[in-house]
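Page 37, continued from 36.
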């Protein structure tokens, strides 16, 4: 199936902080982009609230009859059938929920659910034309509320046996005993995430506003350690997969004063030598607020063109 003129994919990017929605047509043109605060929309009864937000959106723009399918990106582990959410530590109320099926039953439209970072990496690869021959290995490292990670190998997002590949934020760190919101102990996100940075600002930087951490305290030993700690899981994945490109992005890395060169140097230093360390190609994501919405629509349109079922 191919979208006809006047039909749209409704792209939804449900992050740890904001929800973004937009309509994407067959020419990949975005319209009616909207952004909402996640905590306000999902404060009570998340499923019902999300459904209401979608219905309100399509009614506001009178496009219900023009929407062919919905792409829904979530900061969570989603099964390979693009429906069931196993664990969503950064969003309240979505754990152990067949989100895709419930949304389809409520809205009467096919719903494609996936990890939000898979949508963002898809957008970045296609927008930057990084893999014209579908033979590249590309890593997406997006540090925001959590530590987002997506793996792209030979023309497709790598999902793994259960859909949980790329959960770099939830690998264990030696000697760390803090409990992670996912329920495990010692996860990377316990020390390296937007949430961890807020805690650092409040406890060790005198209650500094998080937006000023790198401009006011960029030379502080604890801030330097935070940046260098990002390189440990990043270099681990680089060494394992020997990528053609590493895309760095997310709200934390886009903050004013963030020492991106320090981070890239540290990843190179900690990666295996001589290769891949000496031939690493970093690309900085543009921080496009539309990336998750657009990337989800791109994936859905690819499925539709190939006649593939979302639940395959």
């Amino acid at each position: 199936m191919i979208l006809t003129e006047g039909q749209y994919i409704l792209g939804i990017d449900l992050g740890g902080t904001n929800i973004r929605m937009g309509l994407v047509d067959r020419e990949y043109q975005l319209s009616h982009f909207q952004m909402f605060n996640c905590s306000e929309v999902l404060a009570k009864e998340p499923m019902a609230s999300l459904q209401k937000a979608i219905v309100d959106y399509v009614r506001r723009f009178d496009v219900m009859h023009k929407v062919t399918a919905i792409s829904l990106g979530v900061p969570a582990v989603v099964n390979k059938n693009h429906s069931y959410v196993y664990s969503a530590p950064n969003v309240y109320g979505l754990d152990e929920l067949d989100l895709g099926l419930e949304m389809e039953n409520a809205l009467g439209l096919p719903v494609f659910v996936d990890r939000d970072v898979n949508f963002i990496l898809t957008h970045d690869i296609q927008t930057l034309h990084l893999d014209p021959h579908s033979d590249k290995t590309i890593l997406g490292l997006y540090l925001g509320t959590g530590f987002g990670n997506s793996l792209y190998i030979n023309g497709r997002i790598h999902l793994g046996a259960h859909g949980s590949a790329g959960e770099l934020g939830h690998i264990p760190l030696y000697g760390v005993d803090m409990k992670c919101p996912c329920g495990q102990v010692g996860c990377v996100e316990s020390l390296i995430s937007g949430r961890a940075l807020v805690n650092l600002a409040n406890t060790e930087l005198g209650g500094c506003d998080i937006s000023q951490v790198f401009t006011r305290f960029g030379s502080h030993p604890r801030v330097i350690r935070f940046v260098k700690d990002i390189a440990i899981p990043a270099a681990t994945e680089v060494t394992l997969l020997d990528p053609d490109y590493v895309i760095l992005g997310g709200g934390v890395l886009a903050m004013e004063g963030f020492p991106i060169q320090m981070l890239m140097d540290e990843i190179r230093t900690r990666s295996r030598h001589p290769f891949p360390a000496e031939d690493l190609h970093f690309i900085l994501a543009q921080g496009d607020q539309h990336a998750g919405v657009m990337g989800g629509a791109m994936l859905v349109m690819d499925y539709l063109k190939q006649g593939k079922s979302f639940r395959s």
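The chain has two domains: 8-118+289-306, 132-284. Flag for discussion at group meeting. The longest strand covers residues 30-37.
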